[in-house]
Amino acid sequence: MDNCLKGLNLRAEGGATTHLSRSFQMPRIQASNREHGLLKIALIVMTFMAGHGTLMAQFHAPNIISSNVTADSYCLGTDLFENLHIAYVTEGVLNLRTLLADGRVTDLLVSADSAQPDLDFFSVSLHLAYLHRTEAELGYEVWYSAQVGQALRAPERISRAEERCNEPAIEVDLRGNPFFAWESYTGGEEAVIQLANLAGNVANLGPGQSPDLVIDQQQNIHVFFLKEGVIHYTSDAASAEPRTFPPAVPVFEDVPGPHTAPKAVLAGRMTIYLAFAAEGIVHLANNIPDGFSDTRLIDTAATGSPSIHIGTEGNLALSYQKDGTAYYLSGNPDDLPTPRVIIDDGESQFAPVISTDTFGNHPVLFQRENSLLMTTNASPPTAAFSIDRLSGIVPLDIQLRDESEGDITAWLWTFGDGTVSVSSDPVHTYPEVGEYEINLTVIGPGGRGSAGLGQAVEVTESQNRIWVDDVRVFPGMESVYIPVELAHDVPVQALQVAATFDPAHLEITSVDFLLTNIRSLGAELLAYNISNDPGLPYVTSGIIFDIEPPYDGRTLPPGENQRILNIVADVSPDAPTEGSTAVRLTNGVGEPPLENILTVDSMTVLPRIGKPGTVFFSPAGLSQGAFVRGDADSNGVVNISDAVVILGYLFLGEDPVECLDAGDANDSGTINVADAAYSLNFLFRGGMIPPPPFPNPGLDPSDDQLGCGD
Fold first, then answer.
1. Residue 42: pLDDT over 60
2. Which of 598, 622, 646 is where one domain is finished?
3. What's the pLDDT band for 655 if we cut at 50, 70, 90?
4. Residue 40 pLDDT exceeds 80
5. Which residues of 655-666 are buried (b: 16+ CB within 10 A; e: fewer)?
6. Which of 163, 267, 278, 256 is CA-nearest to residue 222?
7. What is the CATH number of the domain that holds 705?
8. Of 326, 348, 376, which residue constitutes the final position of a domain?
9. Three-class DSSP labels, 443-464
10. Exposed/middle/buried for 132, CB within 10 Å: 0-12, 13-18, 19+?
11. How far is Cα 679 from Cα 667, in angstroms, rounded to an integer?
12. How many CA atoms lie within 13 A of 694 on its CB side?
C-alpha cells in the first residue's frame, strides 16, 4: 500500500451508482518481471548519483488539488518514471490526477459513489482499490482497477456479493499480483478482517478494523489491524501451509491504547517499519531482529495516524499532524533527524500524507478546511545547455548538450523553426536558411526552468552543389557520357554519389572516373554499383582520394563546375524520337542505400542537389550531326591539333572549322580564342573537361546557333 488516509465508519446507506471511465492519456511502458528489476536497479543508481541535496530544501507554497474533498480520503505515490499519482474523493466521485514527468497534468474520473482509495505500483502500472456502492441497500463493496498502458482497466468487484465493507488496503507483490485487505460486516455489526486476491478470498483473519498489509520479497504476507484499540499482527510466514495465518496477536502490549490505525512499509527484503500514534505520541517500530516489541518515540501531542514511506534509497519519511501543523522527518531509519515543520504559514494543515520520489524529494498531501493541497520540497531545476556550433551552411546539423542542474524528469527544446525535441541531448538539422532562437525548458518534481542561448543560430546558403549535366542523344546510341558536376568552396576528402534513372530508356553500363577533374589526384578508392532492374534502378559510386599509407591528406581543391564522374549509358533503340528522360541525384538509393555527400575534415557535408540531368531524344536521322566537343579537326579525338585548327581559323585565314559545335570547346555558343585555351588547359594542365558530348560522339544539348556541316 502506498500512502493514503481514508475516512472512517463509512457504513451509511445510500443511492445506486455507476462507474465512470475514460481514456487515460499518458505515455506508459509495460515491463516484464526481469525488466522491472532492471528498472529498479537503474533508478536506484540514478537516485544515488543525484545525492541528498533536495532533502533539506524548504517546501513550496502549496497548490490546491481540489475543493470539497472527503475528509481523510486521499492517497498519493510516484511510479518509476516520476509520474505522481493522486487519488481522492470529491462528493462521492473518485478522481485520479496524475502530474506527469513531462509537466502535463491528466485527470481521470474513476467511479461515482465511491470512497477510501488506496493505491500501489508495479513497475509503471498503477493498482487502485476503493469502496464502491452499486445498490443502496447493500452498502459499500471493495472494487479494484489498474492503469496499465494508457487506459484504466475495467473495474471489478473484489469483495463477495452483498458483503458490506470498509477500509480497503492494497499491496502488489513482486510478480505484479495485487492483494487486498478490508473490514467486512457481512456477518453482523462486528468487523472482520478479510484478505483476498484477484482469484477470490484468501483468509478470514478474525475480528478487527483498519487493516494494512505488506508483502516481503519472499512472498510472505504480513497483516496489521486494530482489535479492541490495540494493533494486532499475523503473517503466513509463521504457518506450515502457504496462505494460512495463525491467530493475530497484540504487537505493543506495553504501549497503552487506543492505538491509531497501523501504517506499515517494507524496507529491503524482509524489514518492516510500522508507525502509529497512541495517547498523542508517535511511535515507530520495526521487526529487527525479533519482532515489533520495541518502539522509538518520534514526537508528542500528535493526532491521527502518521503517514510513512520508504524511498528507493532506503530512506524513511514520516509525516503527522500536531496542533494543526504538519510535521515530517526523513533520513536513514537508524539515524532519523529531528522532526521539522512542513509549512509554517500560520494556517492549519490536517492529516498530512507523505511520499518519496526517486530523487529523494517528498510530495505531501494535506487538508485545509475542505480543500486538498499538495506541496513538495523539490527545488525547481535550473536550465542550461551548450551547442557545438552557432553558424554553418544549410543543411546545418547542431549537437546540443544539456548542462542543467537539479532533479529533471523531462526536457523540451524549441529550435525556432517550429520543431521541438524531448531528448536530453538532441541533434537537430536546420534545412532552411535563416536565424533561429533555441530555448530549453527542463521539468522536474519541483517545477520547471528555462534558458536560451542569448543569440541566434545563423544558417547560410550552402556553396556546395552537385548536379547532372544535360546530354542529347538518338535511339540506339551507345556509350553516352552523362557528367556529374560539383561546385564547392571547401577541400573535399571523399565523395559519394547516388542517382536513379529510367531503365526503359537507358541502360547504365559503367562509371568513368578518368575523364574527370579528379583524374590527376590519384584517388585510392574508386568504386561503383549499378542496377538496371526496372523495380530498383540506381547507380551509386564512392571516391576516396587518400586511404592508404603513407597518408598525405590529398583533397579535391575548391572549384566550380568540377566533373567528378561520368555515368556511361546505352540508349534504348526503342527510345522516343522526341521528348526526354532524367538522371536524378537521389538520396537513399542503392543497396545499401547511399546519400549524395562530401567528406570535409572527416565530417559529412550534404551538398545541395541541383537540377537532374536531362537526356534529350532526337531522331536517329540526325546522327550525321554527331560530334565530339573540342574535336575541331573532326578526327574523333581531342589533341593539340584541335587548338591549332581553331587558332588558324580565327587568325591565319585557314580553312573554316568543319563542325563549329565541335570547335566550341567550352560550349559558350561561339568560337573564339578561349576555346583553344580551354582545350590546351584540359590537355596539359589538368583543366576542365569539355562539356557533353565528350569523349564519345553525340548531339549538342545546348541551344545555340552553331552546328555541324552547315
1. no
2. 622
3. confident
4. no
5. eebbbbbbbbbb
6. 267
7. 1.10.1330.10
8. 376
9. EECCEEEEEECCCCEEEECCCC
10. buried
11. 11
12. 29
